[in-house]
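re: that chain from earlier
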Amino acid sequence: MGASGSIVDVTPLQRMARDDLGLQALSQVPAFYTVLVEVYVRHHPWGGSDKSSNGHRYDSIPFANGMIGAGMSCQLVHYVHEQHDKFFEVCPQ
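^ sequence. v structure.
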């Protein structure tokens, strides 16, 4: 698991991105805990026409880095329709 899996345990969710290249390290004591949810479309290459080859939207890493730079945590998590129930079990954490 990459940097986006280190604050809240998201291991029950299937990891869809190939990597988190460029994502800054998360603070272990952030001011706020946030998550950036990306929708993964299985029948599209890389998860959708808005995704880069790593599986993230082109602006997800910069957006998350902005929050991390402001003292927050920001985990990148994909919503996958087939994991709907599991996703909403993990969300309350």
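The CA atoms of residues 37 and 77 lie 5 Å apart.
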